[in-house]
Automatic annotation (TrEMBL):
One of its GO terms (molecular function) is DNA-binding transcription factor activity. This is LysR family transcriptional regulator. Residues 1-58 form the HTH lysR-type domain. It holds the Pfam family LysR_substrate. Keywords: DNA-binding, Transcription, Transcription regulation. One of its GO terms (cellular component) is protein-DNA complex. InterPro entries: LysR_HTH_N (IPR000847), LysR_subst-bd (IPR005119), WH-like_DNA-bd_sf (IPR036388), WH_DNA-bd_sf (IPR036390). Signal peptide: none annotated.
């Protein structure tokens, strides 16, 4: 069994197409098919169902995905470790980021400095719900994450970088717009705009209402904070948003939105640097984490 065969297999799994997988691996389709067939012969079982679109793995193929990822990750770490001894860092840093945390942790500038110091490193950035990115660290699909979390995660090393409260957001003509503070009970019966389940802000707001035993109606879910604020501004509903967001719909002089503190519940999101256990951290992630924490002290 060769590493390239496992790489071809994972390309097929992720792309769900022989054509796209071959294009991604920069080989002809027949070459990819031959590589997969050789892998199947070595394992003594088919790994995917022929003739299906999109390509569907067999039970054996599904079972191979996790070990294949771990094997390739270990091989990459071995290569990077050798290079590291020569004081030359090469390879790929797969980083999950929360785009709405850029004002708290300016990771774009940090990555710029890191890649200038280590030009042999390529970056692969992903963003998504917090729980999804944390899961990808646990499975080895991401090397590290800069993003929010509501609690410590077993097996993941978490260093707090920053935090900010969530405030109630509404239009200036809302009945509570002139209040200095509001509480959850005052929001019973309202229409809510929300971010999707799995986002930290949603986990916090759901927990706040559940803790008070108050049901609520979410009339709109949207996975983008700027559009979220636009929808509240348009009167679709009310919601909760991080106070540090800097979108024009909120900060412009003509904005009709109001941010109001929430009393009686703890609505605060914390941004963490998240890494796998020490033995599973890649040299690139380890060096990036060291540099980040030197520039951006814990909890600052």
């Amino acid at each position: 069994m060769e590493l390239r065969q496992l790489r071809h297999f994972l390309a097929l799994f992720e792309e769900r197409s022989i054509t796209r997988a071959a294009k991604r691996e920069l080989i002809v389709q027949s070459g990819l098919s031959n590589s997969l067939q050789a892998l199947e012969r070595e394992l003594g079982t088919p790994l995917y169902v022929r003739g299906t679109r999109p390509v569907r793995l067999t039970a054996a193929g599904e079972a191979l995905v996790g070990p294949a990822r771990r094997t390739l990750a270990s091989a990459a770490q071995a290569e990077q470790a050798v290079q590291h001894t020569r004081d030359v860092l090469i390879g790929t840093l797969r980083l999950g980021v929360s785009l709405s945390a850029q004002h708290l942790v300016p990771f774009a500038s940090y990555l710029g400095e890191f890649t200038r110091d280590h030009p042999g490193i390529d970056l692969r950035l992903q963003y998504g719900p917090a729980l999804t990115m944390i899961s990808m660290v646990e499975t080895g699909e991401l090397d590290c994450v800069i993003g929010p979390a509501v609690s410590q995660v077993p097996g993941v090393r978490m260093t707090r970088l920053a935090g900010e409260p969530l405030h109630f957001v509404c239009r200036a003509d809302h009945r509570l717009a002139e209040r200095a503070e509001v509480n959850v009970r005052q929001l019973a019966g309202e229409r809510f705009v929300e971010v999707p389940p799995g986002w930290t802000a949603r986990l916090l707001s759901d927990a706040a209402f559940a803790g008070e035993g108050i049901p609520r109606r979410v009339v709109c879910e949207v996975g983008d904070w700027e559009l979220f604020l636009e929808l509240v501004s348009a009167g679709v509903g009310i919601g909760f948003a991080p106070v540090g967001l800097r979108y024009p719909v909120l900060t412009a002089p003509e904005s009709v939105l109001r941010l109001i503190a929430v009393e009686g519940v703890r609505l605060e999101r914390h941004i963490y640097l998240m890494l796998p256990s020490a033995g599973e951290t890649s040299p690139a992630a380890r060096r990036f984490a060291d540099q980040l924490l030197h520039i951006h002290p814990m909890g600052s």
